[in-house]
Amino acid sequence: MSLPPIALTCGDPAGIGPEIAAAAWKALGPACPFFLIGDPRHLPAGTPVARIDAPAQAARACATALPVLPLAFPGDSRPGAPDPADAAGVIAAIERGVELVQQGAAAALCTNPIHKKALKDGAGFAFPGHTEFLAHLAGVPRVVMMLASPALRVVPVTIHIALKDVPAALTPELLEETLRITHAALRRDFGLPAPRLRLAGLNPHAGEGGAMGREEIEVIAPVAARLRAEGMDVQGPVSADTMFHPAARAGYDAAICMYHDQALIPIKTLDFDRGVNVTLGLPFIRTSPDHGTAFDIAGTGRANPSSLIEALSLAQRLAQARAKGAPHGPA
User: Is 268 annotated as a binding residue?
Assistant: First the structure.
């Protein structure tokens, strides 16, 4: 099935986004057609560039050059030196990407890393991150962040909040909604007809029967029981420190974790270079490399493009599965 190309946003041009975009094009070429939304001046010197007027031109162009849908920025960007003057352009690239994928001109959206402080300083960016901004643009009240790699898939129920605020934020409603969105996405986009979800406890030893916290008894276990009664394969809560060794990982398709680092530490430890951020619950496919702007190495040629290559490749597979409307096997 022939699909439109993937839209890749530029991210902060002072970060490693430009160089990993160029490296991803060299690695993927026509096998995974994509185009960059951004200013061609920010790409590494010597990068073959094909300026395009519409996404439909990208598939042919990518055989010999990196297709770029030009978006003018105020000036040349200096690697490693984020400039608030670039904020409007970074935001415009995301908005343009969402517009194109919602129109069907792009098969999926892949986003390069942004620097939230520069966006706030330069354009009053009011969102905690990409995920929340994309939910706003798509007009959906709730999305879920998944980190996926060949070794592991994890979903944090609470995301960008202080650890001290997690117990109050961890409501039965939030947990149930997260589980339902994750379950639906694993069926629709990852080709798993009966997803197996494993719930981590919030507290050490999953609360140890209430001795070290009651969230497992009062919040997590009742939600799991209710969804199991509907036919979902939801197990837990179990102690988080026993969930991520190889034998445990073989027993589930996604680990549902209660807070940000409980989810991200294991996947970044097991498969740092190939982790992909996937936003579940959007009306379109969105992936992103699972790393930041890396200003400290920007422009040095040391950036590893593996996560972006994985993000583009996964976006292609998920878009193909969604287009077919049927399970296609594990992604």
Answer: yes
Instruction: List, as one string, the DSSP characters of 95-111.
Output: HHHHHHHHHTSSSEEEE
The amino acid occupying position 26 is K
Q: Would you say 130 is a known binding-site residue?
A: yes
The reply, when asked if residue 277 is annotated as ligand binding, is yes
| Domain end (from 248, 274, 300) | 274
Looking at the fold, whether 289 and 235 belong to one and the same domain comes out as no
Q: For residue 174, is pLDDT > 90?
A: yes
Q: Report whether 188 belongs to an annotated binding site.
A: no
In this structure, what are the phi and psi dihedrals at residue 127, rounded to the nearest 5 degrees? -110, 145
Q: Is 203 annotated as a binding residue?
A: no
Task: Quote the CA–CA distance of 142 and 138 in Å, as a whole number.
Answer: 10
Q: Is 286 annotated as a binding residue?
A: yes
- Per the CB < 8 A criterion, the answer to whether 255 and 200 are in contact is yes
Q: What is the pLDDT of residues 231-279, one digit of tens each?
A: 999 999 999 999 999 999 999 999 999 999 999 999 999 998 889 999 9
The verdict on 112 and 211 lying in the same domain is no
| Distance separating alpha carbons of residues 179 and 187, to the nearest angstrom | 12
Distance from chain centroid for Cα 103: 21
Q: Are residues 293 and 238 in the same domain?
A: no
- Which pLDDT belongs to residue 327? 45
Is residue 131 marked as binding? yes
Domain hosting 246: range is 145-274
Q: Are residues 103 and 189 in the same domain?
A: no
> SS3 for 218?
helix
β-sheet bridge partners, residue 279: 145
